[in-house]
TrEMBL record:
Residues 74-208 form the Glycosyltransferase subfamily 4-like N-terminal domain. The keyword Membrane does not apply. SUPFAM superfamilies: UDP-Glycosyltransferase/glycogen phosphorylase. The lineage of its organism: Bacteria, Pseudomonadati, Pseudomonadota, Alphaproteobacteria, Rhodobacterales. This is Glycosyltransferase involved in cell wall bisynthesis. Keywords: Transferase. InterPro entries: Glyco_trans_4-like_N, Glycosyltransferase_grp1.
Length: 421
C-alpha cells in the first residue's frame, strides 16, 4: 500500500504525533511518501524531526518557475479537468479568509502533488488538518490523483468551517478522521447526513515502549509543567495569573513552561510584572527526551487551554504516571476523568484553576501516585500507536479497495478520456 501524506509544514516541534503515526504505519507495512508544502521556520531540536525533514519533499522548494511547470504539465494534456480543478480552487477561495490568490497557489502545489502521485504509483492521499493541506489533497484528486482522506484535530477547523470549505472537503473525501468522538460530532455538523458513515475516529497515540518505566514522583515542593505552543488558545497567560495568586500561599510552587511562540514576549512581561522569576522557568522547545525529563521532574501537568483537539501532552503525562489538571473542553474529558487521574476545570476560570492546583498541593503523595498509575493504565489501553495506525491503515485499504471494485460510470470514462488527452 503506497500512501502520500499531505502536510502544510512538516516536520515541526509540535507535530511529533504525526511522526509517530507515520512510523507506525511503516512498521505495519505501508509505504508512506511525505509531501509537505513548506519547511518549518522553527528550529528542529529533536534528531527524529531532523531525520524526517530529510525524508520529506517540500513542494515550495520548486520555486515559482518549477511550480509553473507543474501547472502546465497538468493543464495542457487535460484542459477540461484542470478547468474543473481551477473552479474548485476559486470556489474555496471565494469564501476563504486568505482569498482566491492563495488558493491558486494551493492549485499549483496540488499540481506538483498529482504529478508525484502519478509517477510513483501512489494509491491514496491523506492530509493532516482540514486546512490548506486538505485543500491541496482535494485539488490534487481533482487533477487526477487518487482519492483522499484527512484527519481533523481542531480547534482551527471548528472555528471557521465555512471559511475552510470544510463541508466541501468532507463530501468529496473517501473518508475523514476525527481524533475524538467530540471531533466527529463537529464534523457531522458540516458533512451531509449520508456521508456520516465515512466519519471515523482514530485517536492520536503514543508509543508505549517509550514509557516502560515511569519514574516515581519527586520529593520536595510541588512542581508543575506546561507543554505547548505559546498561543492564545493554550491559556498560558491565565496560568501565569494563577501562579501570581498561588505564590501568596504557596511560595515554593514552581512551574516550567516548555515551548515557544508568538505570545512569549507577553508571557515574559507578565512573569516579570508579578515577580515570578523564581517560580516560573521558560524552557523553550525541547526534544522528546527533554520533555520526558521535565515530566519526570514534575508532580503533574497543567493544561489551561481555551481550545484543543485531543492533546498529546496529556497522553504523555499520563503515560509517565503524572496527574493532570486540564480544562473541560473538546476531547479532553474522553481521556481524563476528574478524580481518577487528575482534575478538569472550566476553561478561562482562573479561580477554578487555582483551586485545582491547591487540591493537587494538598493531596497526599501516595494518592497522587495512585492517580498517576490510573491515568497510565487508561492511556496505554486507549492510545497505542500500533493499534491506532492499524485502524487507520484499514480505512486506507478499504478506500483503495472500494475504488478498485467500483463499477465504471460514464463520468469515469469521460475522465479517463480526458486524462489520455
Amino acid at each position: 500500500m503506497k500512501v502520500a501524506y499531505i502536510l502544510n509544514t512538516y516536520p515541526q516541534p509540535s507535530h511529533s504525533f504525526i511522526r509517530r503515526e507515520l512510523h507506525a504505519l511503516e512498521r505495519g507495512g505501508a509505504e508512506v511518501r511525505r509531501l509537505a508544502m513548506r519547511r518549518s521556520t522553527a528550529p528542529l531540536v529533536d534528531p527524529a524531526d531532523r531525520a524526517e525533514a530529510e525524508r520529506t519533499t517540500h513542494v515550495l522548494d520548486l520555486g515559482a518557475t518549477g511550480l509553473l511547470r507543474e501547472v502546465l504539465a497538468c493543464a495542457l494534456p487535460a484542459p477540461r479537468r484542470f478547468a474543473r480543478a481551477l473552479g474548485l480552487a476559486l470556489r474555496m477561495g471565494r469564501v476563504s479568509e486568505v482569498g482566491r490568490l492563495r488558493h491558486l497557489v494551493y492549485l499549483a502545489e496540488a499540481s506538483a502533488v498529482a504529478r508525484i502521485c502519478s509517477r510513483e504509483g501512489i494509491e491514496h492521499l491523506h492530509a493532516h488538518f482540514g486546512t490548506n493541506a486538505a485543500a491541496v489533497a482535494l485539488l490534487a484528486h481533482a487533477l487526477g490523483a487518487p482519492g483522499y482522506s484527512f484527519t481533523v484535530h481542531g480547534p482551527e477547523e471548528f472555528d471557521a468551517p465555512r471559511a475552510l470549505s470544510l463541508g466541501l472537503k468532507l463530501d468529496r473525501a473517501d473518508f475523514a478522521v476525527a481524533v475524538s468522538q467530540f471531533g466527529r460530532s463537529q464534523l457531522a455538523r458540516w458533512a451531509a447526513h449520508e456521508t456520516w458513515p465515512r466519519l471515523q475516529v482514530v485517536h492520536c497515540s503514543i508509543e508505549p515502549g517509550r514509557f516502560t518505566d515511569p519514574p516515581d514522583l519527586p520529593e520536595g515542593p510541588l512542581r508543575l509543567v506546561n507543554i505547548g505552543r505559546f498561543a492564545e488558545q493554550k491559556g498560558q497567560l491565565l496560568l501565569i495569573e494563577a501562579m501570581a495568586r498561588l505564590r501568596e500561599t504557596h511560595p515554593d510552587l514552581h512551574l516550567s513552561l516548555v515551548g515557544d511562540g508568538e505570545l512569549r514576549p507577553q508571557i515574559e512581561a507578565l512573569i516579570a510584572r508579578n515577580g515570578l522569576d523564581r517560580n516560573v522557568t521558560l524552557c523553550g522547545w525541547l526534544d522528546e527526551a527533554g520533555v520526558r525529563r521535565e515530566l519526570a521532574a514534575a508532580h503533574g501537568l497543567v493544561l489551561p487551554s481555551f481550545a484543543e483537539g485531543l492533546p498529546m501532552v496529556v497522553m504523555e503525562a499520563m503515560a509517565m504516571g503524572r496527574p493532570v489538571i486540564a480544562t473541560y473542553i473538546a476531547g479532553i474529558p474522553e481521556l481524563l476523568r476528574t478524580g481518577e487521574a487528575g482534575w478538569l476545570v472550566p476553561a478561562g476560570d482562573v479561580g477554578a484553576l487555582v483551586g485545582a492546583v491547591v487540591a493537587m498541593v494538598t493531596t497526599p503523595r501516595a494518592r497522587l501516585a495512585r492517580m498517576g498509575r490510573a491515568g497510565r493504565e487508561r492511556v496505554l489501553e486507549r492510545h497505542d500507536a500500533e493499534v491506532e495506525a492499524a485502524r487507520l491503515a484499514g480505512h486506507f485499504r478499504a478506500a483503495i479497495e472500494r475504488r478498485a471494485g467500483a463499477p465504471v460510470s460514464a463520468d469515469d470514462l469521460r475522465r479517463a478520456r480526458e486524462q489520455a488527452g
